[in-house]
Amino acid sequence: MVKKIALFNHKGGVSKTTTAFNxxxxxxxxxxxxxxxxxxxxxxxTGMVLxxxxxxxxxxxxxxxxxxxASGLAPAFESRPEPMKSVECLPVRENLFLLPGHIRxxxxxxxxxxxxxxxxxxxxLRNLPGSFSYLLNKTAETYRADYIITDLNPSLxxxxxxxxxxxxxxxxxxxPDYFSVMAIDSLARVLPDWCEWSVKAxxxxxxxxxxxxxxxxIPKFLGTVIQKFRPRGKDPAQAFQKWIKDxxxxxxxKLIPALSEKKMLLxxxxxxxxxxxxxxxxxxxxxxxxxxxxxxxxxxxxxALTKEQLNQQGVVYKQTLESQKxxxxxxxxxxxxxxxxxxxAQSS
Length: 348
Ligand SMILES: Nc1ncnc2c1ncn2[C@@H]1O[C@H](COP(=O)(O)OP(=O)(O)O)[C@@H](O)[C@H]1O
Ligand SMILES: [Mg+2]
What we know:
The chain has 348 residues and is α/β, with parallel strands linked by helices. It is built from 14 helices and ten strands.
């Protein structure tokens, strides 16, 4: 069975999209088959992976094919007689595929919200709450995917609620700043509410008997990522250390107790054996600095850029090689933790 991992924080700009791409690529490098799902109607992940610069390129993509999340869901959301079938993904590199986003997903979000509230009474809407999960399972089967990594949009939308609650696991990306500390507080309130809703939905006969049944299960928290700080030597500069500590405090004192109450955590032993500390940090990732531009121009993570792509010489190139080595280590350890946590959970 495919393992679905959602990257979620309702705050924007915390590196959700960048992390999905970078860690997805690293898992693929390790021989694991990964589908990247762009579930943000702004389609940043699609643009990043395909190197799109403007509107025309998106228009061409949608004109030439039905290879996107909204087209896949259309039979359910537009009450078409045909059943939903696996979406044709775009190959990114060996073992890595993209299921592109579409702006139409935000139109479906409104309908999905109504279905979440009323599907127990309105038979016509009963197929919608389970439709995302059904479509993703079908697509994963076609591609023999081990993981689907879902990049969500920065909001408390119905799409986010659905995709997060029907995932097997989730990761919370953050930046070391005031707003991320606030966001952790808020997630400690929102996620238990969503979980309660989902558990109730799982018990509704009307959703169990739907053509696309609402799936059973509770998503488990894998940990947090803290990203985009300025280092001083090997450690974050002091100004960032304060925010990192505040985020980790928020995780341990607020988020973890809230998730624990709703059974949204793995067994303690799983985190320990994956090498996570008590603060549940999967990775701390410094600012990419000038390398981010080269990475985006080449649609390649920094650690995987070739000498030709970098086009640098002398001391500059030597420094870049050092940075690449460090980012490679960080993302490799991050990917290993994901593998470890998700494998342990399956056997426990
Ligand atoms: N480690 C990093 N170093 C430098 N810039 C980064 C880093 N991670 C993300 N960014 C940049 O920060 C911005 C927001 O990141 P993004 O992944 O789009 O966040 P989100 O998906 O959470 O909104 C983007 O411009 C991205 O290129
Ligand atoms: Mg994004």
